[in-house]
Amino acid sequence: MKRHRSKRVSNRTRRRASDKKRWSSREDEVIRTLYPDYRKLQGHLPKRSYYAIRSRARTLGVAPQRHIWTNHEIAKLRSLYSRGATRAELTSVFSNLTSHQICSKARYIRLIRARREPYALGISPLDAIRKRAAAQGLTLRELDKLAKTKRYFQQTTRRVDWEHLSRAIEKLGGTIEITWRPLSTA
C-alpha cells in the first residue's frame, strides 16, 4: 500500500512578513509599564517573542536606541585616541554617548590610546622615577613588575617608600645621591 503525501504546506512555511499580527494598543501599554523586565513582558505577551518585544520597545521609544557610528565620528575618535585623549575629553566630544560606549567602539576597531606623560604628584623622587619610566617607554604596571613593588607606582600613592624607590631607581639605571645644605650659624 502506497502512502500519498499531502500537497498541503504547513502554515509555518507559508507565513509572510505581511501576515504578522499587528501590535494592539493594550500590548503597547503593557510594554510601556513593564519595560525593563522582559520576563514579565513575555508572561503578559505569550504570543510575542523576546526579540519582537525588544524591537517594539525600541519603536515605542521606551528602550534606548542603538547608536550607529558614522565615518566622520570614527575619524574623530581615531584622532582623539592618537592624541591620547582622556575619557573626560572623549565624553565631552561625544556628548550623546557614555564613556563605556565610546571605549567599546575604540576597542572594537582596535584603537590604542597614545601614552601620556604621568602627571606630577608633587613629590620629586616619585615624579622623577615616573618620568624616567615613561621616557624609557615603560608603563607604571611594567615599572612595578620590573622593580617587584606590587602596585606601588600604579596606585599613585603619595606615601614615600624608600625601599621601593631605591629598587626602581636601580632598575631604571639611576643612582641615589645625597647633598647637604650648608649649616647656618645662628
Structural summary, described in words:
The protein is mostly helical. Among the domains are: 21-60; 71-108; 124-171, no CATH class. The chain has ten helices and no strands. The longest helix has 13 residues, at 71-83. The relative contact order is 0.06.
Count of DSSP strands: 0
Low-confidence stretches: 13-19
Distance between the termini: 127 Å
The profile of the biggest β sheet is: none
Instruction: Give the DSSP E fraction (strand runs of 2 or more residues).
Output: under 5%
User: Order of SSEs, N→C?
Assistant: HHHHHHHHHH
Radius of gyration: 31 Å
Number of helices: 10
Give a summary of the structure in a few sentences:
49% of the residues lie in helices and 0% in strands. With 186 residues, it is mainly alpha-helical. Among the domains are: 21-60; 71-108; 124-171, no CATH class.
Q: What's the layout of helices and strands?
A:
Elements: H1 11-14, H2 25-34, H3 38-44, H4 50-60, H5 71-83, H6 87-93, H7 99-108, H8 124-135, H9 140-147, H10 162-171
Helix pairs in contact: 9-10
Features:
about 50% helix, about 190 residues, 10 helices, single chain, mainly alpha
